[in-house]
Structures are given as structure tokens and as C-alpha cells.
Amino acid sequence: MVPERAVILAAGLGTRLGTLTEETPKGLLKVAGREILYRSMKILQDLGVKEFIIITNRKYEKKFREFLERNNFKAQIVINEHPERGNGYSLYLARDKVKDRFLLFMSDHIYGREFLQEAVKGEGLIVDRNPKYVDIEEATKVKVRDNHVEDIGKHLKEFHGVDTGFFVLTPEIFSIAEEILSEREVIELSDVVKRAKLRVTFVDGLFWTDVDVPEDIKKARDLIVKTSVKGVGDGFISRYLNRKISTRISALLVDHISPNQITVITFLLGIFSALLNFVSIPLAGIMYQISSILDGVDGEIARASMRTSKFGGYVDSIMDRYVDFTFLLTLAYVTINEPLWWAVVGAAIFGSVMVSYSTECYRAVYGRSIYEDIPEMRYLIGKRDERAFLTMLFCLIGEIKALFALLAVLTHLRVALTVWLVWKKKGS
Amino acid sequence: MVPERAVILAAGLGTRLGTLTEETPKGLLKVAGREILYRSMKILQDLGVKEFIIITNRKYEKKFREFLERNNFKAQIVINEHPERGNGYSLYLARDKVKDRFLLFMSDHIYGREFLQEAVKGEGLIVDRNPKYVDIEEATKVKVRDNHVEDIGKHLKEFHGVDTGFFVLTPEIFSIAEEILSEREVIELSDVVKRAKLRVTFVDGLFWTDVDVPEDIKKARDLIVKTSVKGVGDGFISRYLNRKISTRISALLVDHISPNQITVITFLLGIFSALLNFVSIPLAGIMYQISSILDGVDGEIARASMRTSKFGGYVDSIMDRYVDFTFLLTLAYVTINEPLWWAVVGAAIFGSVMVSYSTECYRAVYGRSIYEDIPEMRYLIGKRDERAFLTMLFCLIGEIKALFALLAVLTHLRVALTVWLVWKKKGS
Hints:
homodimer; alpha/beta; Spore Coat Polysaccharide Biosynthesis Protein SpsA, Chain A; Four Helix Bundle (Hemerythrin (Met), subunit A); 9-stranded mixed beta sheet; elongated
């Protein structure tokens, strides 16, 4: 069972980010279009967390209240009037708000979904023995003995892993904090952890990082965008060419533009490339390939900024069909006269839709992606990215009839193979 | 909770069906391509019944064993060596096989899914106050007082409903049967029901019937086929013309042909209608409309004979697209020369697929039929049945260019309206 409550420590004054955090607490800085805290809270909510308790200071209170209201999170705010007393003291202030097992995490850490899925099942301090996305020098190290914390600190000589800033705790932790508070004024979380000899759970090698200096935000953004590629169902051209470019564009745009805006722009660019056939076929071909590259950006931005929408996917899929159709039709219109060749054009246009139809119809009937159910599908060529690339090549060399003949064969062959693979896998 | 066991009474010698039941027990007669008993058992299995106990006589034993093996039902057979002692005695023979609440029903009754869904939730004897599909004259009537059976019999003057032959019982019923058996040799179920003053549950007006004379089988078959029309997603032409014809064809064919065979025949007929364009366009148009009518038959037969398959639906949907495409392409090929009109043809062909694409893609993304989620969709014209009918009309009057222009507008208008409705309903 995932604990129902999560305590978030956000009372630190975050001096290292300079002017960035003059006004905005670290947890509310946007990374890839979303506040750091939005990411953790949204995923944890999906995983079953019912309420959040945010410990912050007087200065940031208003910002946090606005953030919670804007995003409709169920949360309480507890004010630490003495942030200088350390984050152990912040934790202690949550003592009346939680009765059962609870989560604790740092507001300035970015956690990926996979990390959180594992972490919430753990116990005690979550430690990463293979931290891929943090600067080890700067990280807090943990020395473990018999599955419990033996020592913790930035400068340990000998250690087993790195403190991820994520905990699964019981209220007993508060009495330990109280014990230390009876001895001194300032206490850090690491003091409590060490005194408690906290149990350790290892979650290794998954995406999480913390934000200390401005470059961290950019690095995190690029990582998030790169891991936002859906991938499954990508053709060869997508995998080895388009995605390399589109993810860079997405990283540049993710903070400035919405997925829907990009969908519309890509669509207009596609239609524009079709009209370019009346002016110059090679130019049109190149522009068509560019629009095919941009076609990945809306999905990447949507996933990276946690703004995916079913309607977005639905409309995007229909718009893609219209772009392909318009391009092939105008291309045929300016080059082809004979009815026989028009029949080939008809077959090519129809086949281009049928490639998507045979895929979507599978998901409609069987309820799952065909690429997940039938891995062999990934090796069939004829997907949109590949067709767009081929189209550009043939436009550049001016062999338009050959293009249509190729598309007419390629697409229907792909559909036939798709049906065959479905039959082989699913029987009749 | 649905009881885990169901007792089936099938020891009667069924003389009224004449030669039909010389060899085959009534419950194993096929109605709409499936044994009567297969229908009840399959649906009850879906509803949660784990095991069946079939009480039959020595003569039918082998037939039942073969039936169970063929269909992989989990069942025991209990032999009633004295079927002449009545069906109350048959029930009594099940006494060692059931410990908890159990279902009891007659092997020669056909029950629809809706009826069974309600009946399994009931208690005691299931009584129908509005029996639509049985001959009241011949039915066993039930007089009810305070929710319990007061009297039961074929010739009651005053009664509240009709005995459906379906019961939800507890093992107490066996001691009542035993009590009567200590008094006499022959006992009918109705004797036991009356002595027990069995509790009554009303399930009114849903499909169930019993099979007594050969005409009952034909009547039941027609009813099952008629209620097997999927309906949701049918266009106007389908509803008011095609289905009226296709259900009759289905009723004639359901016992003789498999859904897959019909799918292939319909596809070949569609392609044949397309090729007819080279010979005579009006003839081709008529044949295309005929193939559009037949297009409903595979689904009807599949549902009526409980042989639906996802793969069947998948392939059928793709084949339909190919028939439409081939027809429009050959029609255009024999009539149209100018590139401008070919562009219109391209738009019409593309639009015809996009109507289905925008529908299937919805189901792929949202996981439900667009017609269930957005009822307004039913009033949009442009579906396949309507397009096929329009095509036939225009082929008959020879206005082929007008047809393509109309299809080019109609289909894309429908797609645009579909997207708009989805947006209105589902937001962005």
C-alpha cells in the first residue's frame, strides 16, 4: 500500500540558484514546462497519495498557495518560522499532520515516474547505488550496514550509495527529532536519519536529480525531453534521424509553447509543403520531410510537460492523414496526366491511410498497441516517417511516377503483412 | 454472488419433437448454429458459474459426454435410470453434488443473456409476468402470494406469471423432494415447488423460450438473429433497408455457414462489383449495394451463433475499406480523364477511408465506441451503408462526376463534424 500522505520539505532559502530564487522557491521553478513539485506531486497522486503537507517559510507561503490552487492539489501548508533551524526542524513541524506511514521528499528534487513507482514501495531512506543523473561530488553519501544507515554525509570516504532525498517513514521519526531538539537548536535531516539508524531501501539507476545551480535546470529539461520520446511505433527514419532533431527542438520550445500550438503549426507547415508542389517539387519534398520531423515535437512536448491529452493524440493522428493526402494529391496533380497513373496515385493515397488504419483499428479492437502486442511490427517498413523521407528523396531526383508506384506497392504490402501478423498472433 | 454450480434437467425423452429427438436430446438441438444448452451454459459460465451437473438418462449419456468434451465445459453427468419417475426425481439425484446455493434450469429452454443476468441474482423460482416469446396456453402458470408460490400448473384459472424453468435454490429443496418421494414414486418439479412454497423472483419481458415442437426452433432462431443486430453505428440505409434484408439472409444461413466464410464471400462480391464497372456501371452499382447489404450478415451470424471473434471484426473492417476503394477507383478509371476530376476522385477515396479512420481512431484512443460516447454521431450521414446506396443511385442515373464531388464533400464534412463533436464532448 502506498502511504496516503506525503510531507514535502520546502523551507530552504535556496541561495545557490541566485536571482532565480529571489522570488520563486526552488520547487516551483519550471523544468520542461512544469514546476518541479508539480511533477512529483502529480505522479505520486496517480500512485495513490491522497494529501500533501508542504513545510515552507513565510516568504514563500503565497507562492505555494497559488501553486496549489492553480493545480487543484489536496495539500496543507505548514509554516516554518525558523528556516535557519534546519530541515530536520522542518520535518518535526509536520508531527501533528501525519498519524500513519508517510512519504517524505525534497521539493527541489526531480523524480521520474519509474523512480517513484519503486520508491513508494520501499522503507526508510531510499538510496541509489548507481546514481546516473547527479554530481557525486555534491551528493550526500550513505554508508549502510545490515540494511540500515550507519553514516551519512557529503564527505564520507567509504559509502554504498547516494541519498535520494526520498523517504518512507513512520511517525516514530518525530520522537527521534524531538530527542535531538532537546539537545540543540539547529538540526538537519541527516542528523535525524543517522540517530534513527534508518532502514535503507535501494532503488538504483532510475531517473532522479536535484536542482542546485541554474545549469541543473537545463540539464534536467534535456533529459526529460529525451526520455519523453514515445518510441514504440517509430520507424527507422524516426529513430535514426527525425527524433535526434525533434528532441532538440522540443527541448528549446518546451518552456515556451503548448503541444496544441505545435500540432497546428506542424499541420499548417505540412499543408504548406503540399502547396509548394505548385512552385518547386524538390523544395516541397524537403519541406514535407521537415514537417515530418516536427511531427514528433508536439508529442514530445506534451509528454515532457505532462500535458498529454487524448484529444490531442486523436486530432494529431487525423491531421497527419490529411497532410499526407494533400501532399500526394498536389504532387500527382502537377505531374500526372494519364488515368492509369492516376489509378496508381489513388492506390498510393489509399495505401498511405491504410497503414495507419490497420494499426489504429487493431488498438480499437484489441485495446492495446499493435507494437506492444506484436514486436515484429517494428521491423516492417512503410511507416509515415519512412514514407515522408522516401517522398523527399524522389522529389529531389524528380522521379514522381516511380514514387507513386513504390508507395502503392509498399503501403499495401505493409497492410497485408500487418493482417498476416495479427492472424498469426491472435488466430481467427 | 452468482452460485458456483448449476443443475441441468435433461432426462426427459422429449416425444413431441418427433424424429428430431429420436437420437438427439432436446438440449443438444442446434438453434442458430449452437446447441440450446451451449447457449445457456456459455453465458452462465461468463456470469461466474464454475461447474454444471447434468441429469440425463442412459440413452442420451453418450451425446452429452461428446457435447461436453467438444466444448470444454466443466460438468458432471448424473444418470437417471428411471426418467419415468418425473423431473422432480431427476432433481433429487443431484443431492450429493451441491452443497451451497445452486442454479437449476431446464435443458430445453433457451435463455437470452439479459434474462440470465437478472435471473442469477434472484431467489427461488424465476417467474415472468410478461412472457413475450412463449405460448401462454402451453406454459406452466404460477400463482403467487406474499412473494411465494401458492399454486403452480398448466391449467390455473388465476395466475400472476409464467414458470421460466429457471431457479436459484438452496440444498433444503432436497429434503422436500425426499419427503414427497417417501409418499409416492413419480414426482414432478412442480410438486416440489408447490410443497416448498418456493420464494418467487420476477424477471419480466426478457428473452427466454422453450422448445416443444419443431416450429419453436425456427421461431427461436429468427428471434436470435434479429436480436443479433449490433445496431449501434448503423446508418439510415442500414437501419431501414439493409438490416431488414440481411437478417433474413442470416436466419437462412446461420445453421449452414461460418461468419468467416460469409466475410470472404462478401469481400469477393464487393471486388466483383468493382470489376463490373468495366462492363456496366448501373449493374456494378446494384451489385455494390447488394454487397453492402451482405456486409451485415457475417456479424449477425457471428453474434447469433456466439462465434464473434476480434480478428473477424478486424479483418472485416479492413476488407470493407478495400472494397470501397476498389469500387471507386475502377468507377473513376472507366469514366474520368481530366486530372482535376481525378483530384476530386482522390479526395472522395481518401474521405471514404477517413470516415472509418476517425471512428476507429476514437475507439483506439478513448477505448470506447464513439457511438456510445457521442450519441449525436448517429445522426451524421456519410456512413458506408449510405455511401454505397448513394453510389448505386448515381451509377443507375449515370452521374459519376456528381457522385465523386458529393462523396468528396460529404465524407470530409463528416470527418470535420466528428472531430468537432469529439472536441465538444471530450475537450482538449
